[in-house]
Amino acid sequence: MREQTKRATIGGLWVVGWMLTQALAVAGADKAADSPTLDEKYPGLATGGLTYARLVSLPEGVLLRAGALTIQEKEVADRISQAPEAQQEPLRKNAFYVLEGTATTKLLVQAAKAQASSADPNANDRDLIQRYLQGLVEKVTVTDQEVADFYHANKDACGGATLDQVKDQIRQLVLQQKQQDSVDQHVRTIGQRIPIEVSAEWAKAQAVVAKDNPVDKARSSGRPSLVDFGSTGCRPCDMLAPILETLKAKYAGKANVVLVLVGQEQILAARYGIKTIPMQFFYDKDGKEVFRHIGFMPQAEIEKQLAQMGVQ
């Protein structure tokens, strides 16, 4: 009888302990859910998998926690120190980007492994992610109207070719962009599917240093902004460059017109997800993105978009 009572007592204590643990876990989750997301607190800082991460207080040295995944500050520092020397200082200013890239990769690997019914034990992380993302975009298609719209929007950059002459190339380009957009959206919303926590104190400091660049300075200026990511030697980029100079002078004091050469600002371009150039972003006076465009954009179309944003 005593042994049964002892076992019952131990069993009862275990149940109470388990219930207390679950209650604390739920309370912690509720507390995290009440915390602001990175996108709410620092718009534009996160551009990938940490967009909807919650800002919370984490143990010293811990930058991120997502279920069993934990990323320490030392891991981010080690990754920066392993980069080419010329890139280390820019990466220190963008340590948040390093954390986001590291976390996004690990979270995608977890998702790929969870989805795979029979994962190849010899597959590396890159192969796992590639197969996972391919499954996301395999049903993406392009309509004839989308091809025609792209052609007419970028006709000047087609070198006089007719739609029939370039439609196959345009279809492939538009398909690639739609697939990339689908992947980007999936990555950005990881934090809506699984709880991700980021150190609020560390993110606050990173939000200051990471915005020391021409794009974020423009976005925080209190004026609408047009940002073009391009390069020299790129035909549509070279066609757009003098237009941007004209607009910069025309809208001085009313709107920011910023040209970013991706070869000189590789980390900034990566932060903004630039994979095709030229690419234009339009931001309102609060720094919120209102429109984006890929390829050459005629001056009249740019001014039309600026007018819709209240820039006269």
Key phrases:
disordered N terminus; 4-stranded mixed beta sheet; single chain; globular; 2 domains; 57% helix
Question: What is the fold's blueprint, element by element?
Answer:
Elements: H1 2-34, H2 38-41, E1 54-56, E2 62-66, E3 69-72, H3 73-81, H4 85-93, H5 95-115, H6 125-137, H7 144-153, H8 163-188, H9 190-193, E4 197-199, H10 200-209, H11 214-219, E5 225-230, H12 235-250, E6 256-261, H13 266-271, E7 279-283, E8 289-294, H14 299-308
Helix pairs in contact: 3-5, 5-6, 7-8
- Helical residue percent? 55-70%
Major β-sheet annotation: 4 strands, mixed
- Tally the helices: what do you get? 14
The side-by-side strand order for the widest beta sheet comes to: 1-4-2-3
Low-confidence stretches: 1-31
Overall geometric form: globular
Overall mean confidence score, pLDDT: 87
The count of domains is 2
- Quaternary structure annotation: single chain
Cα separation of the termini: 89 Å
Helix and strand sequence: HHEEEHHHHHHHEHHEHEHEEH
Radius of gyration: 24 Å
Task: Tell how many strands the DSSP assignment holds.
Answer: 8
- Beta-strand portion reads 5-15%
The assigned structural class equals: alpha/beta
Task: Characterise this structure.
The protein has 312 residues and is of the alpha/beta class. It has two domains: 2-136 and 192-202, no CATH class; 213-312, Glutaredoxin, CATH 3.40.30.10. Helix content is 57%, strand content 12%. A four-stranded mixed sheet has the order 1-4-2-3. The chain has a four-stranded mixed sheet with strand order 6-5-7-8. A hairpin with a 5-residue loop joins strand 7 and strand 8 (289-294). Helix 3 (73-81) crosses helix 5 and helix 7 (144-153) crosses helix 8. The chain starts with a helix and ends with a helix.
